[in-house]
C-alpha cells in the first residue's frame, strides 16, 4: 500500500468526542489545532482504531481500555476511515458498544504492526520511546533488538546455522536422511525393469518399419510428400478422403460451370487505375497525419473525456472536438462558479453560527445574573418606603407609635433618625429594581433575536462531508477547465485532420465504386483460383487467359481423382496397422520413461546428498562472517547515519548525538544499546545514555528523530506519518528545523503528514511553512472546538496552490 492515502474519517461518540464529526484528510499535509481537551488525541486514536481495531498506547496504559472508548451517556458510536488506494477506495470501520469494539474491516496483521510502530507516534509514547529502547537488562528481547532482527534478517542466519549442524557427521546425516539405503535398492530395481522392456520392444519396431516402407511407396504414387520415418502422419485421413473423392468430382463440375458463367460476364474495359492510385495516396496521407496527431495527443483527449464523463455522467458529449470544447467549457465554468460561491457562503454561515452561539451564552449568563439580583430585592419595597414616610409625621419622641417600645433601650440613636435612614434605603432598592427590570427586558430581546438567528443559520447548514465533497468537486472542475484551456489549439487541429481524412476516404470510395463490375469479375476468378490452389493472375496475363488456365487445371484434377481411390484404400489399412503397433510401442516407452524418471530421482538424491554434505561446512563457516558484516553495515552506514542526520538537523547546537552501540564481536545474539558519543570526537568522548546526557528538549528531539529514522529505515508499507503534538520543550530553532523536516518528508519523500498541535502560534507558523508549493501539493487544516451544548465541532479548511503573478513583470 505504498500509494495509499488517507481520505477522510467519520467519528461518533468516541472518547472525548461527543456527537458526529467528519474530517477530510485527502491532502499531503493535514494540520490539526485545538485547545487541551478539544479532542485532538481522540481523533488520531480513532484513525488507529478504525484501521487496526485497537489502540496500542491505551492498551499499554490499561488492558481494559475498551470500557472507556464509548463517550459517556451514549449507547453506540463508531470510527470509520476511508483510504484511497490508487483509483479505488477502501473503508475501514470499528463500531463501539458499551465495553466492546467490533471491526467491520481492518488492516492485516503486518500492516497493523507497521502502523502502530512506524507510522503513528502518540503523545504519550514520545516521552517513553527512548526509555523503552534503553531499558537495562532488556537483552535480545527488547523492542530495539526485535526491530533490528526484523530489519537485518538475523533470524534467518541463526536458523540456517542450526539447520546445518547435522551435516558435519555422516552418521547424523544418515539419521536425518533415513531413506539413503532404500534409495540404493530402488535404483537397482528400476534398472532391471528398463532392460526387460527394451527387449520386448525390438521385434515390434522391426515390423513397424516394414509397414511404413510400404505406406511410403503408396503415398508417392498419390503424389504426396511423405515422411519416410513417419508416413502415417500424412495419411491419417486417407480412409475418409477415399469417400470424399466423389464429392470432390461434383465440386470440380460445379466449379467448371461457375467458370463458364464468369466468362460470359467478362467484358473488355480499361481500368482507371491512375485516378484510384492518386485517391489512395491522398487517403494514406490524410490517415497518416491523423494517426500522428492521435499518437501525440490521443492520451490527452482521452484524459479530458474521462474527466468530463466522471464529472458529468448524465451528459453525452459530442465526438466533434470543437463542439466538445465549447460545451465542456460552458459546463465547467458555470458549475465551478456556482460551487465556489456556495462553499464560501456555507463556510461564512458556519462562522456566523459559532459567533451567534457564543453571544447567546454571554446574553444568557447576564440574564440569569439579573434574575438572581431581582429575586434578592422585594417587590414591595416602594410601598413600604411610602408607608414609613407617612409615619414620620407621627414620631414626636423615641417611643414607637406601632409597637409602643422605647427606642432609647437599644442605645442606637433616636427613633426619628432610624426611620429616616430605613426610608432612604428602601427608596434606593426600589429604584434599583426598576433599572434591573429595564435591563432584563433588553437582555431578553437580545436572547430572542440570537435564538432566531441560530435557528435560521442552523437550518441552512449541510453535512460536513457534503461540504467537503462540494469543495473537492470545485477543485476538480477548476483543474479540468485549466487542462481544457491548455489543449484548445490541439483540439482544433485534430478536428481539421479528422475532416480531411473523412473527405479523402469518401473520394476513394466513389472511384472504387465506378470499377466495381470489373473488380467483381476479377475477384470471382481469384477466389476460384484460390480454392483450386492455383497461382493468381499474372502481370502479363489477361482475364481470358487466366480463365482458360483455371479450366485446364480443373479438368486435370477430375481425370486423376479416380486413380487415387484404389491406392487410398490400401493406405488406410496400413495406417490402421501402424497405429496399433505405435500404441504398443508407446505403452512400452511409457513404462520405460516412468522407470527412468524414478531412477533419475533416486540417482539425483544420492548425488545431491553428497554435494550438500560438502557444501554445508562452507556455508556454516560463512554465516558468522556474513552476520557481523550485515550488522555493522546496516548500523553504521544506514541506521546510525540517518538518526544522526535527523537529530543534528533539529538540534544543531547539541554536542552529544544519540546513537546505537553494537558489539565488536560475538554477534550471534545481538543486544544493541543506546549511548551518546561526542559529535566531533566520536567514541573517544562517548557519554552515557541519552536520558543522562541530553536536556529535556533535546531528549524529546532524540525520541522524535528516532521514530522518524526507524520509519525511514524499513521498506515503506504505509506512507503516513501521524504525530500527536510532538513539539514539546522545543525552542524556536528546533521548531523551525522541525518544520523544514516535515516539508522535506512531504514534498520529496511522498509521505502524508498528519500532525496535531495545541499552541495557536505554532499552528499558524506550521500552516505557513507547510502551505502548498506546487500545483499537486495540498494542505488541510482542522480546528476542533466545542459548541454551547458541549458537542465536538470540526472546522476544515483546504489550501490550494496559487501561483504568484505579482512578480511576473519583474
Would you summarize the structure shown here?
By secondary structure, the chain is of the alpha/beta class.
Identify the notable features of this structure and list them briefly.
five-stranded antiparallel β-sheet; 810 residues
Structure, explained:
With 810 residues, this protein is of the alpha/beta class. Helices cover 63% and strands 10% of the residues. The chain is built from 22 helices and 13 strands. The strands form three sheets. A six-stranded mixed beta sheet has the order 7-10-11-3-12-13, with helices on both faces. Strands 2-1-4-5-6 form a five-stranded antiparallel beta sheet.
The computed structural class is: alpha/beta
Q: What composes the largest sheet?
A: 6 strands, mixed
Helix content: 55-70%
Radius of gyration: 48 Å
Number of strands: 13
Give me the secondary-structure topology.
Elements: E1 4-14, E2 17-24, E3 29-34, H1 40-52, H2 56-61, E4 77-85, E5 88-97, E6 100-105, H3 109-119, E7 120-121, H4 123-126, H5 129-133, H6 143-152, H7 154-163, H8 170-176, H9 180-221, H10 238-265, H11 273-311, H12 321-376, H13 381-391, H14 415-459, H15 464-486, H16 488-514, H17 516-531, H18 543-650, E8 659-661, E9 673-675, H19 690-693, H20 696-713, E10 720-724, H21 732-747, E11 752-757, H22 760-769, E12 779-786, E13 792-799
Parallel strand pairs: 3-11, 3-12, 7-10, 10-11
Antiparallel strand pairs: 1-2, 1-4, 4-5, 5-6, 8-9, 12-13
Helix pairs in contact: 7-18, 9-18, 10-17, 10-18, 11-15, 11-16, 12-14, 12-15, 13-14, 17-18, 18-20
Amino acid at each position: 500500500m505504498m500509494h495509499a492515502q488517507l481520505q477522510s474519517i467519520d467519528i461518533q461518540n468516541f472518547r472525548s468526542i461527543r456527537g458526529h464529526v467528519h474530517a477530510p484528510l485527502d491532502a499531503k499535509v493535514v494540520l490539526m489545532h485545538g485547545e487541551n481537551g478539544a479532542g485532538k488525541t481522540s481523533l488520531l486514536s480513532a484513525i488507529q482504531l478504525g484501521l487496526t481495531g485497537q489502540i496500542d498506547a491505551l492498551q499499554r496504559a490499561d488492558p481494559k481500555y475498551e470500557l472507556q472508548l464509548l463517550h459517556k451517556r451514549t449507547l453506540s458510536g463508531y470510527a470509520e476511515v476511508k483510504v484511497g488506494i490508487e483509483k479505488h477506495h477502501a473503508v475501514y470501520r470499528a463500531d463501539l458498544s458499551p465495553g466492546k469494539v467490533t471491526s467491520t474491516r481492518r488492516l492485516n496483521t503486518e500492516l497493523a504492526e507497521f502502523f502502530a510502530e512506524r507510522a503513528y507516534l502518540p503523545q504519550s509514547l514520545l516521552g517513553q520511546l527512548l526509555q523503552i529502547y534503553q531499558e537495562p537488562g532488556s537483552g535480545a528481547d527488547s523492542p530495539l533488538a526485535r526491530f533490528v532482527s526484523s530489519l537485518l534478517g538475523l533470524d534467518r542466519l541463526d536458523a540456517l546455522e542450526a539447520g546445518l549442524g547435522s551435516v558435519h557427521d555422516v552418521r547424523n546425516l544418515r539419521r536425518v536422511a533415513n531413506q539413503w539405503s532404500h534409495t540404493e535398492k530402488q535404483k537397482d530395481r528400476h534398472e532391471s525393469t528398463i532392460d526387460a522392456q527394451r527387449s520386448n520392444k525390438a521385434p515390434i519396431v522391426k515390423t513397424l518399419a516394414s509397414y511404413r516402407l510400404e505406406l511410403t511407396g503408396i503415398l508417392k504414387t498419390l503424389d504426396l510428400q511423405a515422411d519416410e520415418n513417419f508416413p502415417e502422419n500424412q495419411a491419417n485421413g486417407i480412409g475418409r478422403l477415399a469417400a470424399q473423392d466423389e464429392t470432390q468430382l461434383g465440386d470440380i463440375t460445379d466449379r467448371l460451370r461457375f467458370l463458364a458463367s464468369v466468362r460470359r460476364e467478362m467484358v473488355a474495359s480499361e481500368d482507371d487505375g491512375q485516378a484510384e492510385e492518386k485517391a489512395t495516396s491522398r487517403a494514406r496521407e490524410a490517415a497518416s497525419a491523423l494517426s500522428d496527431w492521435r499518437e501525440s495527443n490521443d492520451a490527452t483527449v482521452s484524459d479530458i473525456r474521462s474527466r468530463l464523463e466522471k464529472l458529468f455522467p448524465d451528459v453525452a458529449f459530442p465526438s466533434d472536438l470543437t463542439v466538445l470544447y465549447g460545451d465542456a467549457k460552458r459546463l465547467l465554468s458555470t458549475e465551478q462558479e456556482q460551487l465556489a460561491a456556495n462553499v464560501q457562503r456555507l463556510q461564512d454561515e458556519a462562522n456566523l453560527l459559532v459567533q451567534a452561539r457564543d453571544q447567546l451564552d454571554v446574553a444568557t449568563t447576564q440574564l440569569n445574573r439579573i434574575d438572581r439580583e431581582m429575586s434578592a430585592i422585594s417587590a414591595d419595597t416602594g410601598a413600604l418606603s411610602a408607608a414609613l414616610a407617612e409615619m414620620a409625621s407621627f414620631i414626636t419622641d423615641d417611643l414607637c407609635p406601632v409597637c409602643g417600645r422605647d427606642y432609647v433601650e437599644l442605645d442606637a440613636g433616636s427613633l426619628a433618625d432610624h426611620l429616616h435612614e430605613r426610608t432612604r434605603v428602601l427608596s434606593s432598592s426600589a429604584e434599583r429594581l426598576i433599572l434591573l427590570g429595564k435591563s432584563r427586558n433588553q437582555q431578553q430581546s437580545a436572547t430572542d433575536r440570537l435564538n432566531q438567528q441560530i435557528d435560521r443559520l442552523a437550518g441552512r447548514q449541510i453535512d460536513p462531508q457534503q461540504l467537503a465533497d462540494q469543495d473537492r468537486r470545485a477543485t476538480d472542475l477548476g483543474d479540468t477547465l485549466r487542462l481544457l484551456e491548455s489543449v484548445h489549439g490541439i483540439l482544433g487541429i485534430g478536428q481539421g485532420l479528422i475532416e480531411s481524412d473523412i473527405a479523402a476516404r469518401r473520394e476513394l470510395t466513389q472511384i472504387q465504386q465506378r470499377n466495381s463490375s470489373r473488380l467483381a469479375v476479377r475477384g470471382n476468378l481469384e477466389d476460384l483460383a484460390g480454392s483450386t490452389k492455383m497461382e493468381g493472375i499474372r502481370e502479363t496475363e489477361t482475364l481470358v487467359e487466366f480463365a482458360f488456365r483455371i479450366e485446364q487445371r480443373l479438368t486435370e484434377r477430375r481425370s486423376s481423382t479416380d486413380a487415387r481411390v484404389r491406392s487410398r484404400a490400401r493406405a488406410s489399412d496400413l495406417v490402421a496397422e501402424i497405429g496399433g503397433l505405435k500404441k504398443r510401442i508407446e505403452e512400452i516407452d511409457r513404462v520405460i520413461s516412468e522407470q527412468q524418471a524414478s531412477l533419475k530421482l533416486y540417482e539425483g538424491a544420492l548425488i545431491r546428498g553428497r554435494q550438500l554434505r560438502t557444501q554445508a561446512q562452507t556455508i556454516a563457516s560463512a554465516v558468522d562472517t556474513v552476520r557481523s558484516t550485515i550488522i555493522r553495515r546496516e548500523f553504521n552506514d544506514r541506521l546510525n547515519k540517518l538518526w544522526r542526520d535527523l537529530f543534528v538537523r533539529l538540534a544543531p547546537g547539541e554536542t552529544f548525538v544519540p546513537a546505537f552501540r553494537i558489539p565488536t564481536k560475538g554477534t550471534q545474539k545481538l543486544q544493541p544499546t543506546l549511548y551518546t558519543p561526542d559529535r566531533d570526537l566520536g567514541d573517544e568522548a562517548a557519554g552515557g545514555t541519552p536520558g543522562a546526557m541530553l536536556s529535556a528538549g533535546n531528549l524529546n528531539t532524540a525520541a522524535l528523530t528516532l521514530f522518524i529514522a526507524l520509519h525511514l529505515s524499513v521498506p515503506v508499507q504505509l506512507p503516513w506519518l501521524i504525530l500527536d503534538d510532538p513539539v514539546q520543550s522545543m525552542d524556536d530553532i528546533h521548531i523551525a528545523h522541525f518544520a523544514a523536516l516535515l516539508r522535506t518528508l512531504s514534498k520529496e519523500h511522498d509521505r502524508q503528514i498528519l500532525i496535531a498541535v495545541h499552541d495557536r502560534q505554532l499552528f499558524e507558523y506550521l500552516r505557513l511553512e507547510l502551505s502548498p508549493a506546487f500545483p499537486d501539493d495540498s494542505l488541510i487544516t482542522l480546528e476542533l472546538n466545542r459548541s454551547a451544548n458541549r458537542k465536538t465541532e470540526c472546522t476544515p479548511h483546504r489550501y490550494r496552490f496559487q501561483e504568484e503573478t505579482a512578480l511576473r513583470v519583474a
